[in-house]
Amino acid sequence: MFDVRDITELQWLVSRLALSTREANLDEMLSLIELCGMLEVSNIVRNTSNFHTYPGTLWCGPGDSASSYSELGANTAVDRCCRNHDFCPVRASPGEITVPVVWGKEHSGESVNLFTVSHCHCDKVFKRCLHEAGTTERVTARAMIFLYEAAIRQCIGDNGQLVEQHVNLWDLF
């Protein structure tokens, strides 16, 4: 699984690996990401104290600290969800788009996005994955849902426009 956003880098990578390519729609890409996410983990890192990731994970947070795709933190089920979400094919990295700033219900201007904003379908799959991970890692999964919904209030719709996500605190239970 490669995450390449620069077309020149992509062309170089394809030529070096002698791979053939084809267009894939969003559902096909998400299925591929999910299949890759189920691959066996080569290394589980037990001590993951990093400012950029949630404790016990290498992929959950504004950055990641994994040294390779096959490395996960001790909270493997939750970390797998975050890793899959990080590979959403439709996303805006921090600083790439302008998002509304809202305090309570008041619109108070605009700012660049501080966190990655993903396609709404990727966010839906991510939240479902966290709910399923909650059967084994309940506290971590619920904390991730809360933190994600508190920080990320928009997602990217099918038309490329920002869509306001409604926070449902009942999802935490």
From TrEMBL:
Keywords: Calcium, Hydrolase, Lipid degradation, Lipid metabolism, Secreted, Zymogen. The keyword Transferase does not apply. It is found in: Secreted. It catalyses: a 1,2-diacyl-sn-glycero-3-phosphocholine + H2O = a 1-acyl-sn-glycero-3-phosphocholine + a fatty acid + H(+). InterPro entries: PLA2-like_dom, PLA2_histidine, PLipase_A2_dom_sf. Its main location: secreted. One of its GO terms (cellular component) is extracellular region. It holds the Pfam family Phospholip_A2_2. It comes from the Eukaryota. One of its GO terms (biological process) is phospholipid metabolic process. The keyword Calcium applies. Its cofactor is Ca(2+). Residues 53-145 form the Phospholipase A2-like central domain. GO terms for molecular function: phospholipase A2 activity. Belongs to the phospholipase A2 family. Group III subfamily. This is Phospholipase A2-like central domain-containing protein.
